[in-house]
Structures are given as structure tokens and as C-alpha cells.
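Minutes, project check-in
Item: structure for the 423-residue chain
Input as provided by the requester:
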Amino acid sequence: MITRQKYLDKLIAFQDTDLVKVVTGIRRCGKSTLLDMMKRHLAEQGVEENRLLTFKMESMELAGITDYRGLYDLVVSRIGGQPRPYLFFDELQNVEGWEKAVNALRVDVDCDIYVTGSNAFLLSSELATLISGRYVEIPMQPLTFSEYLDFRSATWQPADKTNSDIALFPDGSFATLSSLFEQYRTFGGFPYLALQEPDELKHREYMRSIHQTIIVRDIMTRAQRKGLRAVSSRTVLERICAFLANNVGNETSANKIAGTLKADGQSTTRATTDFYISTLVEAYLFRHVPRYDVKGRELLKTGGKYYIADTGMRSYLDSYRGADTGRVLENLVYNQLVFDDYDVLVGHLRGGEVDFVATKPKQKVYVQVTENMQDDKTMQRELAPLQRIGDEYRKIVVVGSGSYPSDIDGIEIVNIIDFLLHR
């Protein structure tokens, strides 16, 4: 079990507090394993095994637990007389009213609670109302490039060394970081697959499994949960999913998608399209990034872009064509910024755009992403929006290939690999 230290540290920071720790993210990104890591950490601290209680809600063993009353009774019976139990609930979203059981346990039992879920309704308004201020969300993603290298047992030169392109393996063999990055860009960062050399056939089957689980279990069956609208057409849902995957980094809207589907003979309304998009976002397959007026310093009500949780899933949905590599790079940069705890928006300027405006307390960075800037026209197109921003915050152009000065008029030029590895 390879420790994903960043996420584990976040759980540890809230250990033994009166907060329900809720780990969210796309299926198979490592949430269940993170709970196992936390259990191992507690065991190393001296917590007895019989105080570490796990409830895997998708296990056949617990298939009969469908509502909060049954869940509460089961947990209380398992606790018995154990002092200060640690309760781990995996994939709770299919238990109707689960938040009532968790809240009751929090009140009735001296315990520490950890929850995972693969759908955003896990943090519905009902939950927020019921235990407002008493839970903390830890969003989880598939592997970043540096984590991917860890899973492949590859070591590389850090920022304070020469930026070598060589990665070394424990057996003494080596590969270029460039080749490993190409694998990562194509096959993505789902942990199970990252433990071995990529294989397209295996990857295709694994991606199909995740995709179908999200479509069928997380979205199509949502009407079974009280108060949630049904998704009536799987065909339309999958078409919209494919459209969003093909258009990562492009500004789009429900109107545009509905029009495209209609032109292709698939009739749907703007409202239905908007709803179907929301279910894909709810399942953590995509994120919507709003537009931000850089000069006016306000969010814009229209537009925005969508980015996919994992570029390997995009490869699968795009039949491994390897198209639009520049926008895939943009998606990777977006995912890295989110991992680095930035709030990310699309920057709007009159007559131009900045790919990302990324902020966190006392920090802001403007980021452009491009495949290359080998010709003067492309370089000017990428630099111009950043040159028009008058503040003193960092401005970066992330490039996929090519050799450039490290700084042009105060704008940093950074290779994609160095950006992802913080070199």
C-alpha cells in the first residue's frame, strides 16, 4: 500500500475531533485505500484493532442495510462496549438517510467517524443542514504525475538539482521522464493501473468498468433516492459525457451541447442537457470552472469550461486517438492546481482569455497552457493576455515542448513536466 501522504495528513489533522471526515471523489481514485491508511496510522498509534470498525456498504455482507435505522442499529451492535471506537463507512451514498444515522452516532456515541462517497449528493443540502459545521470534506483525485512516478517506483531529480530527464527504477533500469509523462497523459492516474507498465487493452477494460459503474450505479439509479430526479435516457447521458470529454478546455454551454445533439439526430432540450451535465459533475467525472472577469474582479454568469477528472478516462472516451494534446495538457495543469489547493477560474479579459486564475490565501497565479510556442505568432498569442494584467502576481506559461528562455518580460516559461513536479 503506497501512502498518499497529502490526503492522509488531512485526515490526521482532524483526527479525534467532533467532525465527520468525508472523503469524496470519482470511483476508484483511492478513497477506500485512504481509509485503510488511516486505520494503519491509528494502529501504529496503539489503537486496538477491535476499536477500528469498517462498514463497506457495497459489500454483499451489508446488502440488507438500506436505510438509516438499519445502519444505526448495525453499528451500535458492532460497537458493543468498546470505548472510543473509530468508525469507517465506505460508499455510504446508497443508504437512504445515512446522514441521520451518522449524526445520531456522533451524538450518542463517543466515536470518531470517517466516510467516503462517490457522488456529490453525499454532501447534499439535507446533510449540510443536519450537521452544519460538523463535517469536513477531503476531496480526492486520481494520481498527479509525481504520485504516478511514486506508484511506478521511479525517482527523479528534484527542484534543487539539475533538471534531468532521467527517472531511475529500483532494479537499476531507467526511463526518460518524457516517456513516463506520455504514458501518464494517455493512460491517466487511477492507482490500480499505475502500479504496472501501461497496457491499452487492460486500460480499456478498466476504464469501461469505471465508466459504466458511474453511469449506471451513480447516475441512472439516482431516482431511487428520495427527492432526486431520474435520468431517463442513458443514450443521451453517454452522448453528453462523450461531448464534454472531447471538449475539455473549450468554452461550452448546455445550449451548445443540445444544439450539437439535435444536429446529430438526438433531440433533447437545454434544460435536460443542463440536468444531465450536473449528474456527471455530481459523480466527480467532470468539474465545471466558471469564468472570472480579471479587470472587474467578479464572476461571470455565463460560459465556463469543463475538465475531466482523469485524462486516461478521456483517452478511453476518445478511443485513444490522442487528439487535441494541447487541451489535454490544459486539463492536466488544471488537475494539478486543484491538487495544490488552489481555487481555479477561467480568466476573462476584453478581447482575450487567461486559461487559469488560481488563488489561495495570500497567493494568486495566472497560468497559460500551450503545446508549444515555436513560432512568433503563437508566442505572442500566449503572452499577450498575461502582459495586459498589471498586478504583481506570478504569471506563467506552461509549455508541452520546445526550448525557451525561462523568463520573458517577467513571465515565467515552464515545461509541463517541471510544472507538474514543482521543479
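Outcome recorded: The radius of gyration is 23 Å.
No further action items on this chain.
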